[in-house]
Design a protein that fits this description.
80% of the residues lie in helices and 0% in strands. It has 22 helices and no strands. By secondary structure, it is mostly helical. The longest helix has 45 residues. α1 packs across α22 and α4 packs antiparallel against α6.
């Protein structure tokens, strides 16, 4: 019996690894497609609509999201993290509990929508109905929670990915058509409602789970104890991120919010990699929570693999940002470039922070993360808001590098406290060196050519080729590991 235990543990790990790679393969391919759809749609919308329209929608979206944060008690994360099987009673109780909260929130939004005009005097009167319409999309989205959770627990990201890509195709298609027809900000609202409704229909079509009429709150008390701190963390993160639509929107106006939203969307393009990893890592890492050494090695390998891909992608976007903006978005968006550069610290550091965050979360340490988020809220408002007063809307983006450097330091300390040792610098140094070399070459050659579409495509392709070549010469072991890893992913496709 004792001799079989290590073998069984290793076999379970290999099975989990294979299933996780399969999930990552399906999700990654489709997430790339989602990002391509979003990127193309965003370029078209940026050319059709003014920055102020983007800003108005961002404010409307913020108002609805503010209330929607109270429509959840974090049970979703608790259901994913929970060991063992989930009972029908737990799932049904969770579903009805969430729906009661969501309906209450939607009712509050409908009644309180006129107050938004008092907070945002520059918001057009139609903003009241925009907010009410957006609340409908929140109601549809909430219906997907339980089927999506069950798929995530089983690391069944193939079906989830198909829902994601269909939703985003619908969103971008409706938004672009409506914008072309001259519907302005209503284009975004119509697209959001379409996406939410279609997503709910699709996920139930792909899932065998249906809500029953069981409801017993006692069956989910333990989940609520985990979920409330987790949801508190989500609420605090929302408050942290609300500086842009709330403070900047009131102080600098809708156009400033539009520039910041554009800068975020542009800078966060590489996050397709981290989004894919994050959705797979939490349920996968949760199954390793009893083996600190194995969890530590898994987190380190994840850091190497994520930075191997995310660093060069982000660096190419940063190095060619003016040319990409001029060619694709038009020069009306150039005032947002400085904010873009600062927001780019997020994908640069996410490849380090996210694997560690997933490791902490899988250990059930949501209370610690909640306490840390309180500090981050203080940074965003205590540093970001004053910088907006001094430097304009770009000031809020200065908090990005501060925040993510702090993320990395604190996450490393928290994991160490739980006997999970993570070496950050040895796992990123070689990837960073090759990336910096590539950027230096781009800066040397890009001034020699006139920026146009062909220039952007050729320089991007040449830069990626240079990165792989330098990695082969200077960092062959890491590159070999990456190729082996991605071959496993490819071989695990659904």
């Amino acid at each position: 019996m004792t001799e079989d235990a290590p073998h069984n543990s290793q076999q379970d790990f290999q099975d989990l690894k294979k299933k996780s790679l399969k999930g990552m393969s399906a999700l990654f391919v489709r997430q790339v497609l989602v990002k391509v759809i979003f990127f193309v749609g965003n370029i078209i919308l940026a050319r059709l609509l003014a920055p102020q329209i983007f800003g108005i929608y961002a404010i409307v979206q913020f108002v609805v999201q503010f209330f929607s944060t109270f429509g959840d008690v974090g049970i979703g994360a608790a259901l994913i993290q929970k060991k063992g099987d989930l009972s029908r009673e737990e799932l049904s109780t969770t579903f009805w509990l969430q729906q009661m909260l969501v309906v209450s929130v939607v009712a509050v939004v409908v009644l309180a929508a006129p107050l938004a005009l008092k907070v945002y005097p520059t918001l057009p009167p139609v903003g009241v109905w925009l907010i009410r319409a957006m609340a409908v999309s929140f109601l549809f989205s909430s219906l997907k929670t339980i089927p999506a959770i069950l798929m995530e627990r089983n690391i069944d990201f193939n079906r989830i990915a198909w829902v994601d890509i269909t939703e985003n195709l619908a969103y971008q298609g409706v938004a672009v058509v409506c914008a072309y027809l001259g519907y302005g900000v209503w284009s975004f609202v119509a697209a959001a409602i379409t996406r939410a409704f279609l997503g709910a229909v699709l996920i139930y079509a792909l899932s065998s789970w249906r809500p029953s009429f069981h409801y017993r709150f006692e069956s989910v008390k333990g989940l609520v104890r985990f979920g409330l701190p987790y949801q508190g963390n989500q609420i605090l993160n929302f408050i942290k991120d609300s500086v842009t639509p709330l403070f900047v929107g009131v102080y600098a106006g809708a156009a400033a919010v539009g520039y910041l939203r554009w800068a975020c969307n542009f800078a966060f393009v590489p996050l397709v990699l981290s989004e894919t990893f994050g959705r797979v890592a939490f349920p996968a890492f949760s199954k390793l929570q009893d083996d600190a050494a194995l969890l530590g090695r898994t987190v380190e390998k994840s850091i190497r693999m994520m930075t191997f891909v995310m660093l060069p992608v982000t660096a190419i976007l940063v190095a060619l940002a003016p040319e990409i903006t001029h060619v694709f978005y038009t020069d009306k968006w150039l005032p947002g470039l400085n904010a873009f550069y600062l927001y780019s610290f997020t994908p640069l550091l996410m490849g380090i922070a996210l694997p560690m965050f997933s490791g902490i979360l899988c250990l059930g340490k949501s209370n610690i993360i909640l306490a840390m988020t309180v500090v981050l809220v203080a940074i965003e408002w205590g540093i970001g808001a004053p910088l907006v007063l001094k430097f304009g809307f770009v000031g809020i983006a200065v908090t990005q590098p501060i925040t993510y450097i702090l993320f990395v330091l604190v996450y490393k300390w928290l994991l160490s406290r739980n006997s999970v040792e993570i070496r950050v610098i040895p796992n990123v140094a070689s990837n960073l060196l090759v990336t910096l070399t590539m950027v230096a070459v781009i800066e040397l050659i890009k001034g020699l050519f006139v920026p146009n579409l062909i220039f952007v495509i050729l320089v991007s392709a040449a830069s990626a080729t240079l990165y792989w070549g330098l990695s082969y010469i200077l960092n062959r072991q890491n590159m070999t590991e990456a190729i082996s890893y991605f071959r496993q992913v490819k071989g695990s496709k659904c």
